Amino acid sequence: MYTGAASTAQMFRAYDLVTVILVVPAFVVAGLTARRGPGRARLLVLSLLAYLVYGYGYYLFGTGFNDLFLLHAGVLATSVTALVLQLTTVDLAAFTDRVQAGSGMKGAAVVLGLLAAALGGMWVYFALDNAITGDVPDGSRLVETDTIVHLGIALDLTLLVPLYTAAAILLWRRTTWGFVLGVVAVVAGLLHQVGYIVAMPFQVAADIPGAVSYDPGEPVVVLAYLLAAVLLLRPTSTDRVRHPAGIR
Description:
Layout: H1 6-34, H2 40-61, H3 69-88, H4 93-101, H5 105-133, H6 146-172, H7 176-205, H8 218-233
């Protein structure tokens, strides 16, 4: 189904599994729930679209022609369009009270800022080292071709680092847009980490030379995303339903 290096094919198969088991069901539930009005379901839709935009950038640009080329192009184009349209119709007023009442906004801003600095700083260092020495960066603990490494760094520097940075700054200022972008960043980021974790044993099972079953540094990264998610999404007093008679 996937042409090119076997390591890339196994990585995509793992991502397919995560998409089928987690993303598609979540999309159905969130899409149906979001029709009832603004709320967390709308933020989940935005997060899933962001996950698809980043992930299918790998599918479309990380390999050559294959049987699913047109499908991948369609998913990426549709996801980008839908993400833009959803962002332009976000009801910011629906989250204003939550942002004002939430006590974890600056904490989440710090976590996202650290993620942006670590990710951006690492790739900038390796890019400068490549410019000076000609050495190609190793990328992640996955077995990756030079094309995948280059694409991953390019996507991180042009999509993730700017998103995390903007969300961190706006969250520190306690703006509603900061909350929206922060949720999108951490939820999509968690799904990306799940795909990464699943892809390593896929490569091991396929006997890819140099493959490893886990990344010892990954728990720290996952915990950072989980911490930011808890700080942003934990219940606040504004989540209680107020009835006309004043009964909660």
